[in-house]
Amino acid sequence: MTDVNLEPFDALVLMSFGGPEKNADVLPFLQNVTRGRGIPDERLVEVGEHYYGFGGKSPINEQNQKLLESLRRELARRGLETPVLWGNRNWAPFLTDVARDFVAETGGTKFLAIDTSAYSSYSSCRQYREDFAQTLDVLAAEGMPVTFEKIRQYYNHPGFADAELGCVRRAVDAFAQQVGGLDSRRHRLLYVTHSIPQSMQAASERWTAGYRGQHEQLMSWLEAKLGLGLHLDSELVFCSRSGAPHVPWLEPDINDRLEELKAEGIDGVIVVPLGFVSDHMEVKYDLDTEAAQTAAGLGMDFLRAESVGTDPSFVAGLVDAALERAAQYRGEPVDSPAVTEEGALAPGSGACSVSCCLGRLPKPEAPSWAVGDEGP
Ligand SMILES: CC1=C(CCC(=O)O)c2cc3nc(cc4[nH]c(cc5[nH]c(cc1n2)c(C)c5CCC(=O)O)c(CCC(=O)O)c4C)C(CCC(=O)O)=C3C
Ligand SMILES: [Fe+2]
Predict the structure, then answer these.
(1) Binding site: which residues?
(2) Residues 163 and 42 both lie in one domain
(3) What is the pTM of this model?
């Protein structure tokens, strides 16, 4: 049996993407995101407009503040006193600043990160570990040696999966009300996630089920749970493609697919933002604004499911995953629950390995996950 504590970690860190707060932040934010990534200027101008359309303010920071509060409440409920911090990759509060302040104030140096990405890929896993390595380097140079660990990717953790199931159930019920009953010939369930380059997809498959495969595993589980009474076909579609036009990314784009579906006789869709844990700009713009307009232009009914946000089951699951990682780090046998067939520590699971999700260039990353390594 695993001890219920987070030792030896001094703090949990909610690690996220970050987003701008006002119009003047948008350009420097986008420069932080895209430094060295070869995204065409036209795309940056276009994405800038998405943010300006919302007064330059991304919803992501408020979402993370709510999640931070929920995590603190959940720890308190379990009698755990470990502090929970919040730090970002691309905008204030930056991870390095948050970690530096914590070290200066408390002397604590061991951090366990909870990141806001459920699936495996360079962008959603390894890049966070590169961020930790960078923070580690900066602080080491300032005479503050720190360490970072992170929880596993949690796409198949029961906490996240159950929360997602609730979101889909509520959306299906609301949609059935809205259209006066489900009709499998006319209605479709669309799971949406962030598109990534095909090369990033391929890298994600080296040791885990891969970015797309992990979404598909969760979709199969959701379908089985939704079960009786729901005879709607479902499929995975993508949003938020960037990159140059000649570089292949995961498809189909949700807007293109809506047009095809309409031509196939589908006139209503339930859109589940499976790849997003809260209402980010991609959800508010790419789904609620752009895809909703596409659907309206085609005369289709459109309902967007909630994201898991601060669903109690999701929050409790994140804390469970942190406890699991801490126990594993201490060398205790861990219970590693997963809703999909592979256990969470087996290949196809959400555990990172040294070789997983490599980016284009070798960069230092921390930690190097040591469970079941080395991958194929
Ligand atoms: C897999 C994935 C997630 C999900 C996992 C996770 O959550 O981490 C995610 C999340 C997010 N992506 C976000 C914003 C942006 N992503 C960009 C660019 C890119 N994303 C990529 C992938 C992902 N991105 C990729 C392969 C690129 C190409 C450049 C590169 O290789 O890095 C760009 C540049 C402009 C553009 O091209 O769109 C922006 C502005 C925000 C904040 C939103 C807000 O403000 O609410 C969030 C949560
Ligand atoms: Fe992104």
Answers:
(1) 58, 128, 194, 282
(2) no
(3) 0.93
